[in-house]
Design a protein that fits this description.
This protein is an alpha/beta fold and 741 residues long. It is built from 27 helices and 28 strands. Zinc ion (ZN) binds at residues 488, 490, 578, 600. This is ribonuclease Z.
């Protein structure tokens, strides 16, 4: 039997709508795979991710529909699912995967990517793709171009192989723009017909007829008659019920109003079972994934829903996945619980997540049909109620902490500060329950408000911000951003960029944003500017290589404008000791603020020199020191290494981030004792490689003085920390042990 269930719906932190069909444990997913979908499914189930066989993407082939696909595949390969999965979607899907040719995947991901050209039959069902194509839009480009399909195939080959994953990509195949095969607006929908299931074997009836249990049962199940001891001939139809015809499921995806007419022209009720007359057609579920400009209760759409004939109506469910009607539930609930707990002690560092977005009630309907909202089994979270529960739990189990809880009426606005860090995601590798992948905004006070920089942009960075600040608040945050820096091509550092830029472009009609990144990012953006033509208007790309000290080939116009935009005194990228190419960045403003961001790197003496006397150092600290061998192997830094680099810099403030998911809730190194770490560096870093050697040396009195004065903060997802409030994380670890997360 098949079970049909909605497992994702559009919320502030997810743009996905997803229907799951489960056949005796085998999972099939239909819908949109927006950024963050893997984390959402891993957080609240019920999909067994290791059992996903096929993914059917609906809608248009834009980043909105499939931005979470790479993260999903990486997540699956992390859990040892490395083969046997296929991804099926619109005709531009192989192209979309091809645009990932510059990404340096760490694991081999064997996946079959296909355009759903014709019906797909597997052991459980027949899936008929229905592609709605709008008329009057530009036609096919290079549709018959074998060269293009060969090129995409060779790119897919490379993505499947990781033999040279850490090598930079330079050949022409990878640096020329990949032309979009089909520029028409098209949207993918599916009609799903599960195979009939054999009738049930009636054991009692068989025994009454004198059939002995054992091989005789098997004989009847195979369709053969059996003669009993008394000579009665028992035929299969006497003991086996009729074959059960399973009902169809239809997944519609209408991204805009323009697709409704195309949808009304399709015969959605065509019989798919051989030998099944059309008047026995049965549909159990129609999932309507609808764009925001469609009114599902308009005369036109109501008529469309009514067009499913009376034979289907008795038990037919219409499920509406519409962003104005589904509830705005928090997607990753355990991470929200952690922030709610920390908010008890540090309310100014953890602004309450926005859950107030307006959603409409379904209108009372006199239609013969009664649509329901497509939402997963409820897992809603009332943050105020949760706060009360946690507060009581702490009063019982940790009275010493209870006295430090800041009551809500005492929550004041934190003191103003010239610099503020928004830790959007703080994890390394792939998203985990409590940590999304890396993304940090640094807001720097300027004459007219704040000028902000975004340092790396992991998957779902934009959606996390939208959850933190709400739909209106996030626009204000985006408007402040003047510069985005992408350090390197590992997927946890940049897969959120297209969504972020798209949101920025929509919010800023005439603005300019600078992007400093490896050159492969520019190629990726050029590929996608065929889908998002507005990208090119306000975006100024600067190759990170051109800002290294060794390189003066930079475009003077863009860089000069960047100096003006951020009121800079200096800016420089430094080649990082990680994959190639990878960079760190250091800049200072004319108001004497100096920022240094390491990106991913082993301890780097050149970075330390360039960052000298920084106001704020944001350094990766993927592992604690016992995992130094892992840090060396994966080219990351440990906590003590990061602190020793900051000591050489004489940093005033240090933010440690990019923390391994192996530290599941809060890392063990919260409230780090800087002096003790620095003093013991010689011992714990005894097995240093050649990169970290410079850190192991005698400690001077000046070093000790620095240790006493520096403010070190360990980044936590959703934390907003002003420079004036850096360092105070006392009690956080104790707190998370006292509450249920
Ligand atoms: Zn990396």
């Amino acid at each position: 039997m098949v079970s049909v269930q909605v497992v994702a719906h559009p919320t502030s932190d997810l743009d996905s709508s997803l229907l799951r069909l489960n056949f005796s444990g085998a999972e099939f997913l239909f819908g949109r795979f927006s950024e963050g979908i893997h984390r959402a499914l891993a957080d609240h189930g019920p999909v067994k991710l290791s059992r996903v066989r096929q993914v059917f993407l609906t809608g248009q082939t834009t980043w909105t529909e499939l931005g979470g696909l790479s993260g999903f595949l990486i997540g699956l390969s992390d859990t040892a699912v490395k083969k046997g999965l296929s991804v099926i979607g619109g005709r531009n899907l192989p192209w979309a995967i091809g645009t990932l040719r510059g990404v340096q995947f760490r694991q081999k991901i064997e996946v079959d990517v296909r355009y759903a050209e014709k019906a797909i039959v597997n052991e459980f069902m027949t899936v008929v793709p229905v592609e709605l194509v709008l008329d009057g839009v530009d036609g096919l480009v290079d549709a018959a171009d074998d060269g293009l399909s060969c090129k995409i195939e060779s790119i897919l080959e490379r993505i499947r192989s990781t033999d040279d994953a850490n090598e930079p990509v330079h050949s022409d195949t990878f640096t020329t723009r990949l032309l979009l095969p089909d520029t028409r607006s098209a949207s993918m929908c599916y009609i799903i017909q599960p195979h009939p299931t054999p009738g049930r074997f009636n054991v009692i009836q068989a025994q009454l007829l004198g059939v002995p249990p054992g091989p005789a049962f098997g004989q009847l199940r195979k369709g053969l008659p059996f003669t009993t001891a008394s000579g009665t001939v028992v035929t299969p139809d006497m003991v086996i019920g009729p074959i059960e015809q399973a009902e169809q499921v239809i997944v519609l995806d209408l991204p805009t109003h323009a697709f409704i007419t195309a949808a009304t022209k399709v015969d959605w009720l065509r019989p798919l079972q051989t030998g099944s007359p059309s008047d026995t057609c049965k549909v159990s579920t129609v999932m309507h994934i609808l764009g925001p400009d469609i009114d599902p209760f308009s005369e036109q759409y109501t008529q469309f829903m009514k067009s499913f004939p009376s034979t289907c109506k008795a038990s037919l469910r219409h499920l509406l996945a519409h962003p104005s009607y589904v509830p705005d539930t928090i997607t990753v609930s355990r991470s929200a619980r952690l922030r709610t707990a920390l908010r008890l002690l540090s309310p100014t560092k953890f602004p309450q997540s926005n859950t107030a977005s307006e959603r409409k009630e379904l209108p009372r309907s006199d239609m013969a049909i009664s649509p329901a909202v497509a939402e997963p089994l409820t897992y809603s979270l009332d943050l105020d109620e949760l706060r009360q529960q946690m507060s009581s739990a702490i009063a019982d189990t940790a009275p010493s902490l209870a006295v430090r809880i800041v009551q809500q009426d005492e929550c004041r606005q934190s003191s103003s500060s010239d610099v503020e860090c928004i830790c959007i995601g703080t994890g390394s590798g792939s998203p985990s329950t409590f940590k999304n992948v890396i993304g940090t905004i640094v807001r720097i006070r300027s004459r007219e408000g704040y000028d902000s920089v975004l340092l790396d942009c992991g998957e779902a960075t934009y959606y996390s911000l939208r959850r933190m600040y709400g739909a209106a608040g996030v626009v204000a945050i985006l408007q402040e951003i003047k510069l985005i820096f992408i350090s390197h091509m590992h997927p946890d550092h940049h897969l959120g960029l297209l969504t972020f830029l798209n949101a920025w472009t929509q919010g800023m009609r005439d603005g300019v944003i600078y992007l400093i990144a490896p050159v492969n990012i520019q190629i990726w953006i050029k590929d996608w500017s065929q889908v998002y033509p507005k990208f090119t208007n306000g975006l100024r790309f600067i190759d990170a290589e051109h800002l290294t000290a060794a390189n003066s080939r930079h475009d003077p116009a863009s860089v000069e404008e960047l100096y003006d935009a951020l009121d800079l005194a200096s800016i420089q990228t430094i080649p990082a000791i990680h994959c190639k190419p990878a960079y760190s960045i250091v800049f200072s403003t004319s108001s004497q603020f100096k920022l240094a961001y390491s990106g991913d790197t082993r301890p780097n003496q050149r970075f330390a020199a360039a960052a000298s006397n920084s106001t704020l150092v944001i350094h990766e600290a993927t592992f604690d020191d016992v995992l130094l061998p892992d840090a060396i192997k994966k080219q990351h830094a440990t906590v003590t290494e990061a602190l020793c680099v900051a000591k050489d810099i004489r940093a005033q403030n240090v933010l440690l981030t990019h923390i391994s998911p192996r530290y599941p809730v809060l890392p063990d190194f919260m409230c780090v004792d800087v002096l003790q770490r620095v003093l013991s560096a010689g011992q714990v870093l005894a097995d240093e490689d050649e990169h970290g050697e410079f850190l192991v040396r005698d400690i001077s009195e000046d070093d000790k003085k620095w240790c006493e004065n520096v403010k070190v903060t360990v980044a936590v997802d959703g934390m907003v920390v002003k420079l004036s409030e850096m360092g105070d994380q006392e009690g956080w670890t104790e707190l998370v042990h006292a509450v249920t997360l």
